[in-house]
Prior knowledge:
- 2 copies of one chain form a homodimer.
- By secondary structure, the first copy, chain A, is of the alpha+beta class.
- Chain A is built from 8 helices and 15 strands.
- In chain A, strands 7, 8, 9, 10, 11, 12, 13, 14 and 15 form a 9-stranded mixed β-sheet that branches.
- In chain A, helix 6 (about 200-210) crosses helix 8.
- The first copy, chain A, is globular, with a radius of gyration of 19 Å.
- Chain A starts with a strand and ends with a helix.
- Chains A and B meet through helix 1, strand 5, strand 6 and helix 5 of A and helix 1, strand 5, strand 6 and helix 5 of B.
Amino acid sequence: MASFLVNGLPARSVDPGDRGLMYGDGVFRTLSVMSGRPLNWPRHYRLLTHDCGRIGLEAPGESTLCDEIARVAPGDAVVKVIVTRGRGGRGYACLDDIEPNRIVAAYPPAPVVPGEAHDGVKVRRCRLVLSEQPRLAGVKSLNRLENVLARAEWRDPGIREGLLADSGGRLVEGTMSNVFLTCGGKLVTPELSRCGVNGAQRERVLDLAGGAGIACEIRDVAFDEIEQAGEVFLTNSIIGILPVVALEERRWAPGPMAYRMQRLVEDDDARGR
Amino acid sequence: MASFLVNGLPARSVDPGDRGLMYGDGVFRTLSVMSGRPLNWPRHYRLLTHDCGRIGLEAPGESTLCDEIARVAPGDAVVKVIVTRGRGGRGYACLDDIEPNRIVAAYPPAPVVPGEAHDGVKVRRCRLVLSEQPRLAGVKSLNRLENVLARAEWRDPGIREGLLADSGGRLVEGTMSNVFLTCGGKLVTPELSRCGVNGAQRERVLDLAGGAGIACEIRDVAFDEIEQAGEVFLTNSIIGILPVVALEERRWAPGPMAYRMQRLVEDDDARGR
């Protein structure tokens, strides 16, 4: 179903001694490829490089990755780029001479759910409380068991996403998305200095909003502030920008800020062509 | 160097779509095998089963695992048993019909460091502060990036282990070991309800000490209590029981409690024969 390149070679398998499997010792990013073109690529690459640096890994070269993405995803696809610390024996200590492993995986495009970008989606609040680890905050590491456990809290296909708080009762993110609110005309998204993943789509929305003269705030957001928000929307590199229309009993009308950001993102993708 | 069985079959590789690699979605235990006999096996198996349950995985059957350990490690070895959620496409949600993957890996026995069990070892305090996630506390999950980062803080081979605290300044564990102190004749080890890994050797030491009439306390331990401890020792299923003789400026004489626990553990291993 998926096709994989491991260090540039077609592969159906990885070394079972890879530290990515042993310890989650690696990072990844997931992106959309349309007609062979990786969308929002500069931010994805910058964040991947940043994440590698945060855990002390050398990042793959940009042209190497671009070549490999082109080979594995010549058309439309979801592509996942994984960088692990490599094969490293047993034990947490890293031998000096191990080489990172680079996995580029192409999956079929995500199924489009008709109408959800326009009509919006329902979300829930997850019971799982995110742990706080400033050393890994913002990083999309391979340690994602919290996300897995949070996503396992519900099976209702009518609930698109679960929102997560930290132990201080602050809104952080969704299980697979970042969250934006509007408050008095301003765009607000949680700071990710304690936990959470800094998504490339989040970065792009902040950049594009700033460029369009929309005031943005990155700050701590009490979970209960959502109740007062004029709008709530989710950002993710695969599903795009989704208005939230329901969180438990609270209802919102979709747009107009979410629609505006959708157009800005579409224009940005078109400009990249 | 290592030999692997994946779901009972000899393998040099695992599926790159395995959720163990993608998300650290799995658990593991590491044990010593001597002359084909896995030491402290009942506790290892019970803890593995417990950990599987904590993340919603079905545990492998005991006889299956015993057979596979016997095949992969007929003599002396370090064996790692990994259970992952299996191959599960892209995204955190788990499809109902995926089967866990079971990896049994045999490594050469750990090199014995002459004298350290008797003369003791030096440790340091890690700068990394453990995050608190009660949902995973005690569980030996594949999300071990904190341990990797903590272990990467030092290269001095004279430092055997790094001790870790949580954000409340409580002693939790070492990067690869559990920690015991003696306080007024009692054996004290940190509670692991917020973070940390509950090692099979820790369980055994508590059981054996209790059986020998030694009072044990499992409780919160302020990191600074170490200063007042009569003795400090580390427990780990591979390295056994190691007296700590130095933490920064503080010095201890090794034993007698550490020596006593070493003998109880040796006797327990011998009884298992």
